[in-house]
Protein: Prepilin leader peptidase/N-methyltransferase
Amino acid sequence: MPQPLLFGIVALLGLAVGSFLNVVIHRVPRGESLVRPGSHCPRCDSEIRHRHNVPVFGWLLLRGRCADCRAPISVRYPLVEAGTAALFVAVTARFGLSWTLPAYLYLAAIAIALALIDLDVMRLPNAIVLPSYLVAVVLLAPVALLGDGPAPILRGLAAAVLLWAFYRLLAHFGGMGGGDVKLAPLLGFYLGWLGWGPVAVGAFAAFLLGGAVGATLMATRLAGRKSRIPFGPAMLAGAFLAVFAAAPITDWYASLLTPTA
Structure:
């Protein structure tokens, strides 16, 4: 399949998934059904018309306001849709049209949902994290059985255990929340599938990004030393930094350790 066509199809898929993720982000923390009722305005309860449900374009058509009560619709809705499409295209560029691709597209989708939910309510819902373990195994295990061999999945399992132990230790001393501990092995499995370099980069980047955000918030007085800052977004951002750039990062670090003549 020509690459532009593949990217176009994946972008459309990403827009559709992003529209669904908006529902997930809003309803899952509230314990609401993802199916019923249909999409509606949270202010006047009017059902959203089909033409207004088209990702991104529906929001633009409505000029960011409900068609019935004119209540403002957050710009986050089209940003989630467009952001999901962009991340889907980036993941596709990374893995190509391969059997591995669906697993990492799924990871991209839940990463967006989990990051925004954690920012909203400071929680990583079990309803998303726990089923994702099964999805990861179902999507990646056949890849190992059909060609890559057992090494990637065994390495992924080892990385999952390693990150779980590390985060569990931090949680014991009050440095991590329970949701972070549950998410860590899932990210470890995905990164371990790719290699030990991505595991190291993803784990380190999470703390680097989380520390940078925390320092910035304190410097701007938007948070204090005792403020709770969600760490899930940093974990997920670090994981995707590793997915896309682990090789050049590890090569650069290795060059620093290699003495020059």
Remarks:
- The CA atoms of residues 172 and 178 lie 10 Å apart.
- The mean pLDDT is 90.
- Residues 1-97 form one domain.
